[in-house]
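Minutes, project check-in

Agenda point 3 was the complex the collaborators sent over. CS summarized: two entities, 585 residues total, and the question is how they sit relative to each other. Sequences were read into the notes so everyone works from the same version.
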Amino acid sequence: MSVFLKSTKRMQRSDRVYVAVSLLILLIAAVVMLFPLYFMVITSLDRPVEAASANQTLIPRYVTLESYKFFFQFSDHSLRWILNSAIVALCVTAGNVLVAGLAGYAFAKISFRGSRILFWMFLITMMIPYQVIQIPLYMLIINTFKLRDTYAALILPGLCTAYNIFLMKQFTTTLPTEILESAKIDGCSQPQIFTRIVAPLSKTVLSVMAITTFMDSWNNFLWPTLVITKDEMKTIQLGLTSFRFQNSTFFAPMMAGACIAALPMFILFFALQKYFLEGVTIGAVKG
Amino acid sequence: MTILRKRRALRREDEKWGYLFVAPAVILFLLFTAYPVLNAFRVSFQKYRPLGSTFIGLQNYKSTLSSSLFWKALWNTVVYTVGCVPVSLVISLGLSILLAPMRKWVQTIFKAAYYLPVLASGVTLSIVWLWIFSPFETGIFNQILGVLHIPSQNWLGSSKTAMLSLLIMVWLGNHGKNIIIYCSALAGIPNDLYEVADIEGASYFVKIRCIMLPLLKPTTLFLTVTGIITSFQVFQSAYLMTGGGPNHATTTIAYLIFTNAFTYFDFGAACAQALLMALITTVFAVFQFKFMGSDVEY
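CS then shared the predicted structure for the full assembly.
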């Protein structure tokens, strides 16, 4: 990995200085970027007092879980919010893995009339900003289907994204066609080929897809705001928002809520870091 | 003959499964994407009323283009985008150049650290920054600036600094994705090029200018276009931190569309504005790919 360092084996003094300075800059950047999260955690450990102008410090003055208690007591449904988020995110993730997985495979490896046109249709809609879709989609879900305050309203529109189809297609195109052909000759039907050959070989891309979809769904805020009004149907992001607007001076409990909303993603990240980091680059590869 | 017939039967069988496999995706797509997009055009020509909208032709577009608030929102969005994208590209490129030659485990630690803020939701981050930007002298951001002898500011509450505050939030936080993408692009540059440069006696900055930047051009193009498209749609921080204010200083297009639609229930005008916005982002994307993409192939 001697990109800048001279290709000779022994590090020279100037190289050591370069490495040290780089590390210092990288470290400062990391501290700056992690600061809001650190600040969130220490403020959440403060006491739940009304504190619009309280003295903010970098070192926690109190370490108490009172603010977490305060946040959970704000609504009878605060645990339900977390459950709702989990239900919605899991359904959306399962739907995307299955629906986009199948469609991506079919677009890549099965030849049928109209497949190119259909695939292009998906690609083009990836360019359309969400603002265009949001209003008619709202009218469809709320006015036509009358799905206000239901899980269906939260889950259905997200069940399959064009991006995930694109991702799956890009990956399955690289699988050797011979394997699929020989399976076919051995009498495998297409569903068997998918479950026994394609899915196991695409484990990485399917996991990446599952993780990014779960994260987007968990963090989604705009769509739930539009279709949910009842307190018990709120997702955690929505619950946190209503807490923020109703208790605009209770900062410590607000931070406690923010921590709670972020915690599941952090846990997932540390458990499955490889897939998260891979997920970032996998979509950026030029098609 | 029988082989041919068998093969044809197999192909027909395949075709059937192909349609079956894409069917759920296509149905969901027609219902929740294609139909809404087409409907957006229809609604944009209407005066929306809950019981029976009326066709009013181009009225929504005309009143949008003649409304000063729309142009102000467009200007704000452009300011935000111009403030976001180049700065964030420079920061992430700089950090990636420093990070790429490090050992693998060092890279992983830093990438994880830079990526952590990306995981937190927009709601979480905006609540934290709301507190950081506390307008009082006791607010942490004001305290830090106080060390540098900069007087306390009413960050989010003043129309002079509100947009700057939203930009600071981006500058200081959200580079994880870009850094990871740049690092993987840098890792893809063959080492021979640097070795040749060493033999030629090229300096550090020459190597950056003549090897890295040209070879990173496709990545930079990709990040620029996606960066512009996402910052053009900025909504959450405006909605949760400033409410578009003060005095419309942070009213972005996406925020304007949202309030027109879901505060005033003027769906027609909101759809017209959304379509105008889509037009702008599309032009951007096409223009950029044409302008910068001339020598992207390798």
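Noted in discussion: The longest helix of chain B spans residues 2-44.
Follow-up: revisit at the next meeting once the mutant set is ready.
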